[in-house]
Amino acid sequence: VHPNVSQGCQGGCATCSDYNGCLSCKPRLFFVLERIGMKQIGVCLSSCPSGYYGTRYPDINKCAKCKADCDTCFTKNFCTKCKSGFYLYSGKCLEKCPDGLEANNHTMECTSIVHCEASEWSPWSPCTKKGKTCGFKRGNEVRVREIVQHPSAKGNPCPATSESRKCIVQRKRCQKEGKGKKNREEKRKNSNKDESKETRQEGKGRAARRQNREQRENNSKTQPKKRKAPNKEQDLAPVDTAH
């Protein structure tokens, strides 16, 4: 063993030196060179830092640098996140997205263009004017629809979600709700009064007829029966004048 190589290292190093740091790592750890000024120091890590990707070999696991425009990568030729000013597309970092795609500044990726989509129109509303459906001849009716898919930055904009048109209705008077209700209550009261009046009149009529009947019965009981007048023709006997 070289005099500068030590076996009693710390921080995951299997072998190390005072000048270069880790020379080899313990199993499953990744070896990576970190630059400090003009000097490179070897360190052993459980995973590769940002801007590096790991490769496992039978004798050593190493961290290698990603491409200059790549912030994190899976392999040397497949980036998973780009540095500022670049957009990720199919593992590559591009300054401008291909045709048919647009740059998403939130995810810093090239994504498909999404156009706006709207639902079908609703049926036309009743013809109204100032919130009323009566008391006028010409009014307006409307219909609406909903946005089911909002567009992306380069997508087609959304259409109008409401339409209005003129309409004509049969002119009719508006009946106030309170007045109509009051009229109905008055009619119901008058009907009840008429029924009560008829009932009272019928009761008075029955009482009067009953009273007349009772009066006749009493009169027939108290007055003496009249004797039947004799028949004068029958009482006068024939007179025999021949003697």
From TrEMBL:
Domain Spondin-like TSP1: 116-170
Subcellular location: Secreted
A GO MF term: signaling receptor binding
Region annotation Disordered: where it falls in the sequence: 169-243
A GO CC term assigned to this protein in UniProt: extracellular region
InterPro entries assigned: Furin_repeat, Growth_fac_rcpt_cys_sf, R-spondin, Rspo_Fu-CRD_dom, TSP1_rpt, TSP1_rpt_sf, TSP1_spondin_dom
Basic and acidic residues biased stretches: 175-219
CDD domains reported in the protein's UniProt record: FU
Domain R-spondin Fu-CRD: 11-110
Protein family membership: Belongs to the R-spondin family.
Protein name per the record: R-spondin-3
Name of the gene encoding the protein in the UniProt record: Rspo3
